[in-house]
Write a structure and sequence with these properties.
By secondary structure, the protein is an alpha/beta fold. It has 10 helices and 10 strands.
Length: about 425
Amino acid sequence: MTTRFIILTLAVLAICLTIFGQIVPQKDPNYDENNVPKFDLPDPLTTFSGKKIKKSSEWIEERRPELLTFFSENVYGKVPCKIPIYQWKVVEQSGNALDGKACRKQVDLIFKKDNHTLRFNILMYLPNEAEKAPVFLGYNFYGNHTITNDTNILISDAWTRNDKSLGIDNHRLTEDSRGVRANRWPVEKIIDSGYGLATIFYCEVDPDRDDFSDGIHPFCYIEGQQCPASDEWGSISAWAWGLSRAMDYFEQDNDVDASKVIVFGHSRLGKTALWAGAQDERFSAVISNNSGCGGAALSKRRFGETIARINAAFPHWFCKNFRKYNDNEVALPVDQHELIALIAPRPVYVASAEKDLWADPRGEFLAAYFATPVYELFGKDGIPSQEMPPVNQPIHNTVAYHIRTGEHDVTDFDWEQYIKWADKQLLKK
């Protein structure tokens, strides 16, 4: 075998790996601003054909649809069929939750198609003093029973990720994990502020593993299909679909103000909240907490987690078409500031943590900043400067941002900001 033949073989292999999105990421992630590559950020107000968008009507009629289509077909994956709620059931309810402050509801949403059945449960706490409550809606990671010590909350039998530190083993939830994530969900503070809280265990909609044989995906398979097509929904898109079905339910629940539902998410579920809010304009506001790569952070910065890394570690989250941009961000004709812009003119909050470098706090901030021109088309205030605000000093405009002390988590500080901002944007205009 000649040297020339070996070189040609390796070159062909490299090309094939690039095409099919299988190149192994660089060994060490970049955490140095000096090593961020130079890149051209696409202008959200210029169409793919080069037309400048100057009016909000042009954004709505021309630019927004083409961006939404691109993200749908090349990043998160489109939902290939309609699956309406077959039935809903209130499986538990009490008007005396939280020492009489709140009504607690546990509602099953049931879906049926052909020989498939899926159920997921919405846990709701609604303030008794409100006739129709504005609501924070968000997924939780380890079951509804983990967000509080309330012994009335049902324990899901869905598959879950193991976490021995939280008392979760054998991919099953038990009484041992009740209340283990109460630190992330200040239920009483939310109720005392006049808001309701609704949460869903995300693995009931689609188990968080690289297996498309369960969850909601098989409902849309054609004969012989075993996984989504290259432009069809990954798990993030499936989870976003679930949030919209919860919204369907809220629209007929007389205890919920469906015009004031704020979709919230942390980490991978922050990515989900952004995508849900971009697609479904019924959500009145969107909160992204430490959502990072594929969420609020700019992909072209290649800082912390990158497209190649996230697709390698979690190949089921995004559609297969997204793998074309593994270590190839330069070819990506969009970036995450345009995902945020798709939410305009509705309020959006992007939050970072100082020590969460994997999620690229500066990339999250810059995405909010570069989404601002779209909001300005609608007369809304965004991020006024490319200079990041000091730690723990939030910007509470229609496009909001804060970076707080600490790590990758959801804290009381975060929730205090979200409540104050929601008051300003939705309740006290």
